[in-house]
């Protein structure tokens, strides 16, 4: 179906982004293409539907050479493509018009277009959304509309260019489900991704590195090569990593790529021994005690029964009684009155608090209350004991509470990195000396060197560096509390890990109080002392990670899922492992538990 | 959140007005404006107002939504009427203080201009509220089509308009996000001009760079879906004039005539 022979490509005539790539993809295959940033994976994807044409070698799609101008539109309708950003690829304001865009361009007859639109929307599970506005959809739904737009051209190949990287877990699952269903009906699917769970579901995995094919094979062959993957800046699926770790601890389990398989393998090993080896439930208490110890101090940020509505407040109060029973099945209910409702909690100095919630649950609204950008409709927000409803207090709060918004690199604007980071301190009216000091120290905090990078334009930096500069811009305000909205959104695994380490360092070493919004339960489990879960603007749960993750199924119901280690622990408990497993949520606990369960008899 | 850009955003419905050919609606909107401009006194405007109210009722748009749609542009109405209040002189002087003088004619023209502008906006807002952007751009393109013969890129202009409308709410959201991020860093327009400039560039630069980034991906996405101009393009909902459109055209012609000579009749 896709025949790529010794293909090379360069954007600038100097550096080859792809060099001598030969990949053959058969009809009906589900292939995942993996690779770190700059590996050439997106460039490869754009060759399949002739958005780019190889400089050397050939690319043949369904028997048509992409270099042949004549068959350009035939190729593009054969290989439908879905792009990364859900906001940038929809052309029309209404769903049906957008889905119809492809066939309209192809000159398909009106009645046929109508049929295709109907069927394409049915295939992605968006029946009845024809006249919805594309702007009002969630990210996951937008991506499904984009898939429908490709399907309406009746393609044989579907290319997904990191289509899931900007979605929350729920949106990602929905997208994956649609792709698998299409694949089962014979569609050839080529998915560019850096999510290993997705790769594990594919028929075949191709890993690109520096424009060359580094690995090619079934997921079971490729994904277990943990050393190589780590070397290529890719993460390893949780099951592989865990099985590797268990083997190094002397538990003989095979390398698995699916968690289900690994759970069975472990359960088999442990069989019969569990009874003899009661496991002391000694789950690390460091986290909990840390939070409890700070209990006596005055909170840095306190929410007192805060409610917020984007509607006119008097109207909101009137409608207040109407809430309940009426919730949208997806995204933000446009009729929902309260973006936040009766939020009551406090953040103490030195804490690391996580805020979790599905898209549209009010997370972003919540954090914008922390430095007075939004004002509560009801209730009070106190920063260091002072109500920030007052304008003066809000300004003062902004120097104490630094907020790093989602995709902060998009706010960069100055001609040099130095000026951008200096923006905050200069707004505070500090002296040139002090500004200089702040810039240098905040750049150092994010691991950048002022001398090396200060005079560069922020727009010339790599994505990861841009985000660091944006972080530094907030740190230069010298805040006591750092609020982060999805700090790792849209990053590849290597960069994600670096940023989480950076955040952990700012908390542990720089002594900042950190509030982190995330929908990655793994990240929250690894870093936070306390987690607040929001659901449709209300506090759904709050407590230590152990308390929050004990909710299991309830978390799943609000679309959040569980950390991988906890998922595995529960699966093992269900397979007959000791009850203590239901208390685990970190990988260390889990490994210790499994090791003692499997070796218990021998000890 | 993006109240500033809600002018004329589409209100879903299936009323007779919604089902009119967008070309008819676009022309009717222009006719409405013409009628409002032709009206020379309040009687003429009253006729136009009656029609506008009738159209809104027919489109079954709730009063609240209609008001929300027009509200952002009311500032223009207020500005224009204040301007008239102070600068149009004539008749009895009602109020005088220092160089400010308000006369009878000023009050009259203030009210008249305000009503006229308001009616024009209400009319155009109704057109966009009952027409999807794609239909609107198609209508725009088709109405310009005769000019394509003299080299006017009608299709391209239509497409540009459509994309602009599609991305407007998105950029509005983005502007709000960038603004909030910058005030989080202590930015503000107040105090000194240099600070104001810095604040302005801290909003404009990110917005432009985002626009370019989006344009690039959107272009690729359109290419990937075989877009190649107007050539051989078909439509999911082809435009077709019907009896309804003829009726609407008749009504509009009557309106313009009535508004023009209302001061003769009443």
UniProtKB/TrEMBL annotation, chain A:
One GO molecular-function entry: ATP hydrolysis activity
The keyword 4Fe-4S appears for this protein: no
InterPro entries in the record: AAA+_ATPase, ABC_transporter-like_ATP-bd, ABC_transporter-like_CS, ABC_transpr_CbiO/EcfA_su, ECF_ABC_transporter_ATP-bd, EcfA_1, P-loop_NTPase
Alphabetical list of SUPFAM superfamilies matching this protein: P-loop containing nucleoside triphosphate hydrolases
Limits of the ABC transporter domain: 2-235, 301-561
Subcellular location: Cell membrane
Membrane topology term: Peripheral membrane protein
GO cellular component assignments: ATP-binding cassette (ABC) transporter complex
Any one Pfam family match given in the protein's UniProt record, by short name: ABC_tran
Key words of the record: ATP-binding, Cell membrane, Membrane, Nucleotide-binding, Translocase, Transport
Organism superkingdom: Bacteria
Gene3D superfamilies linked: P-loop containing nucleotide triphosphate hydrolases (3.40.50.300)
Similarity comment: Belongs to the ABC transporter superfamily.
Protein's recorded name: Energy-coupling factor transporter ATPase
Organism of origin: Slackia faecicanis
TrEMBL record, chain B:
Keyword Transmembrane set for record: yes
Membrane-protein topology: Multi-pass membrane protein
GO cellular component: plasma membrane
Signal peptide: none
Subcellular compartments: Membrane
Transmembrane parts of this sequence: 26-58, 70-89, 95-119
Protein transport keyword on record: no
Protein name: Energy-coupling factor transporter transmembrane protein EcfT
